[in-house]
Design goal:
The protein is globular, with a radius of gyration of 34 Å. It has about 675 residues and is an alpha/beta fold. Helix content is about 45%, strand content about 15%. The protein is built from 25 helices and 19 strands.
Length: about 675
């Protein structure tokens, strides 16, 4: 442990040698690491990651229990809506009959998770039943200040009048307010507003130990997958005077919650949802909280001072580890021990019944990494910047991430030709050749360099490889030298971004041109997927990493046909189908110069109405199947979009095709 003994001396040397600016920057990063390690729940991205890890802990360690004998739910379901022919508001006559049945069954208390905020014909009958209740009954209450998107002033006024008319010593209002996290996941108890009636859970279990509790909700999993944690009955059954007595034993002595179990209403994600694929109705959230209250399960959390202490410990350990002059086989066990400590501790707390909501488990790791990096950088007195990507030959045509992988493992860059399946993008700036003859050479160079900078950035930012520049044309591909599962998506998005950037460029660049010169045209883009031979080609004096083959030629032809098709970007179906994007609209089949086999082409149309997109796809499928009557539908669709030049061109081409198979572009 000599490195521990020399740690203070090493810190002193770093302080002396690093320089003021580096020390200030390092200090700033260490403070940032401390804040991340303490308050990651409040940070973008980190907060989402913390919530996801908390959900995993809760799911992995949730107690498995048999059906809770203390609570039952009575629900309106979709069958109820069909039977009553009412959806919103819910039928109140059936509720009145259900309350009458429950009142005679000996329920311990009844909570109604329904807002009576609009008048109904059955109100008098329901109010009479509520006033006649012998069982403590709690009517759902909400106020506009906390639910402005769900209740209006008129509705709240009616709700208060309804509660006033129905209220007795045994029938009173209770707040049904729940608060989901920003991601619509129900993780925590709501805070209680003193201006509201008591929370429904507090009202139904008035002496519970969770008064004022705002920690995590204790979710439980069923011991038997076929037997839910809470008993659930359709309200139709309970409201039936002939059937209800059969189930008396199921309700006697239980707390009963009444509400909706409807497909698209009052449903929330819970920490279990990402793993079960199911949402939970608000009524069951109330039931879960009620069970937690009845059990007195007030989950303790770590006090703030202890969380700050742990955050300081995390930063200190990261600094100590970074300053340790150890070989990798000495450093590896130290890193593993720390990773295990910070990784296992939150799960241990959860297993022991602690509330790990707001526990910065991800923050500990992120803070450690940030402190480790900041300290290590200062310790090595890094005065030079990272190697610039453009300083190597690779940096001229490869994204930084791919270049760094190849520099670390040069074997990944084939020095010979190899067959690869790649996505190829060709672009061309319309009218630039004519423009270049009308303006001074210096201005030509300025415009084209600015344009190619924009196009290059788009390719590299989307993980592509720049093959070459041919005047104002850009050739790029994805899938070599290193392939990635997102190549199709990245290539398609890059191609579309290049078209859009070209449209913006023609406006801004044209503003700087003298009067009377030809305008800058649009950027035409072609995208294709296929096999090509990729590698380093050339002579002894000059080599170029490039791709050769029919796929390159096809992409070039697709770029060129944009002029004939009145479009800006065209992709082959081979590329579109592998892009993972749903913005493509079919544009028929064409035969391009130098290729006898027809190509089925697609055009990106992210702003085309979804209904029209589906209609167009159906019409093109019908035409492909030989249904000539679909032409009338296509003409009608084109008529609804008279300014859509590409769609008008498609109609023209289909009418002009003699054999009905493909349009020959020349």
């Amino acid at each position: 442990m000599d490195w521990l003994r020399h740690w203070p001396r090493r810190i002193a040397r770093i302080v002396n040698d690093a320089g003021t600016l580096r020390l200030v920057l390092t200090g700033f990063l260490l403070v940032a690491a401390l804040m991340v390690a303490r308050s990651s729940w409040d940070l973008p991205v980190a907060g989402d990651a913390e919530a996801g890890l908390y959900d995993f802990r809760l799911k992995a360690l949730a107690p498995r229990v048999d059906q809770d004998p203390r609570i039952a739910m009575v629900v309106y379901n979709d069958d109820t809506l069909l039977a009553t022919r009412k959806r919103s508001p819910l039928d109140r006559a059936i509720l009145a009959r259900a309350l009458a049945s429950l009142d005679g069954m000996g329920a311990k208390s009844i909570g109604i998770d329904i807002l009576f905020d609009q008048p109904q014909d059955e109100d008098d009958a329901l109010i009479a039943q509520l006033r006649a209740m012998r069982t403590p009954t709690w009517i759902g209450y909400a106020e506009i200040a906390g639910n402005a998107d769900q209740i209006s002033w008129n509705q709240q006024e009616f709700l208060e009048q309804f509660i006033k008319r129905a209220g007795t010593i045994r029938t009173r209002p209770a707040s049904i307010r729940l608060i989901a996290d920003p991601d619509n996941v129900m993780r925590r108890w709501p805070d209680h507003n003193s201006d509201l009636p008591p929370m429904l859970v507090s009202a139904m279990s008035p002496r519970h130990a969770l008064m004022g509790y705002q920690g995590g909700i204790r979710y439980r999993e069923p011991l038997d997958p076929d037997r839910d944690v809470f008993l659930k009955f359709p309200i139709d059954t309970v409201a039936d005077p002939e059937l209800a007595p059969i189930f008396t034993s199921q309700f006697r002595g239980r707390h009963v919650l009444i509400g909706g179990d409807i497909v698209d209403i009052d449903r929330f994600d819970t920490p279990m949802s990402p793993y079960s694929g199911k949402t939970m109705i608000g009524l069951e959230v109330h039931a879960t909280m009620l069970a937690q209250a009845l059990d007195g399960a007030r989950l303790p959390d770590l006090p703030g001072w202890l969380l700050w202490t742990i955050a300081l410990l995390v930063v200190a350990l990261a600094m100590l580890t970074s300053l340790a002059e150890l070989r990798w086989w000495q450093l590896a066990p130290l890193l593993l021990v720390q990773a295990a400590l910070f990784g296992i501790f939150p799960f241990w707390l959860q297993a022991k019944g602690w509330d790990t909501l707001e526990l910065p488990a991800i923050g500990w790791g992120a803070g450690w990494v940030l402190a480790f990096a900041a300290t290590g950088s200062a310790a090595r007195a890094v005065g030079s910047q990272q190697r610039r990507f453009a300083q190597s030959a690779l940096g001229k045509y490869l994204p930084r991430a791919i270049a760094e992988q190849i520099l670390a493992d040069p074997a990944q860059l084939a020095l010979h030709g190899e067959n690869r399946e790649i996505f190829v993008v060709f672009t061309d700036l319309e009218g630039f050749t004519k423009l270049s003859h009308a303006i001074p050479p210096a201005q030509v160079a300025t415009i084209i360099n600015r344009y190619l900078d924009i196009m290059s950035d788009i390719v590299l930012n989307h993980g592509g490889t720049i093959d070459k520049f041919v005047g104002d044309a850009v050739v790029a591909f994805w899938g070599a030298p290193i392939a990635d599962s997102m190549d199709g998506t990245n290539a398609a998005r890059a191609a579309w971004a290049m078209y859009q950037a070209g449209e913006e460029f023609r406006v801004t660049a044209s503003a700087d041109l003298p009067e009377g010169v030809p305008p800058i045209g649009k950027t035409r883009v072609g995208l294709h997927f296929g096999e090509a031979t990729v590698g380093n080609f050339g002579g002894k004096g000059r080599m170029q990493y490039t791709a050769l083959g029919d796929s390159m030629n096809t992409a070039s032809r697709l770029e060129a046909v944009n002029k004939i098709l009145d479009s800006g970007m065209i992709a082959s179906r081979e590329a579109a189908d592998r892009s993972g994007l749903d913005w493509w609209r079919p544009m028929g089949r064409i035969v391009v110069r130098g290729r006898a086999k027809p190509i089925e082409i697609m055009e990106p149309a992210p702003d085309f109405p979804a209904s029209d997109m589906d209609h167009l796809r159906a019409l093109m499928a019908a035409l492909k199947a030989g249904d000539g009557t679909a032409m009338a539908g296509l003409a009608a669709l084109a008529g609804r979009h008279p300014a859509d030049a590409a769609l008008q061109n498609l109609l023209y081409r289909l009418n002009a095709q003699k054999d009905g198979n493909a349009y020959v572009t020349g």
